[in-house]
Amino acid sequence: DANSDQSIKGAVLVDDGKNYSLSEKGNTTVENSKAHLSVRFSPVTNNGIPKEFVLEQNYPNPFNPLTVIRYSLPVDSKVTLKVYSVLGQVVAKLVDEVQQAGYRSIEWKARTFASGVYFYRIEAAGTQNPANTFTQVKKMLLVK
């Protein structure tokens, strides 16, 4: 955005759940890649910690039978990540724990679930400052 005064100094290359930090100078080597790469540009601190909470779109989407959900935590946080049916029922609890700040990913293996639309919801609260919260919902499609 031309009007933004926030510049991006680095990025994270994600290959099959493994994160490679990239800076504005230099390079990185990715070995044994399965060619499921994504590049995420977001503001990071000097030590590579994201500056904001982010919930990414699952990949692949639509999927069968496995998908990966990635998210970013700028501070150590109590995290819950649940999958819901279109009726609002919790069908899977993927994360329910305190996690350190950084980039995270989790796989959802949906082999036993019916085709259809599902929603995933993250709730995160900073452990040092519980008022620092983040909640977001995204939609995904399981096709068998």
Plain-language structure description:
By secondary structure, this protein is mainly beta. Helices cover 0% and strands 51% of the residues. The protein has no helices and 10 strands. The chain has strands at residues 10-15, 18-23, 37-41, 54-55, 66-73, 77-84, 90-99, 102-109, 116-126, 133-142. The strands form 3 sheets. Strands 7-6-9-10 form a 4-stranded antiparallel sheet, with no helix packed on it. Strands 2-1-3 form a 3-stranded antiparallel sheet, with no helix packed on it. A 3-stranded antiparallel sheet has the order 4-5-8, with no helix packed on it. A hairpin with a 2-residue loop joins strand 1 and strand 2 (18-23). The N and C termini lie far apart (39 Å). Mean pLDDT is 82; it is low at 1-8.
Oligomeric grouping of the chains: single chain
Number of strands: 10
Q: Give the ordered list of helices and strands.
A: EEEEEEEEEE
The averaged pLDDT comes out at 82
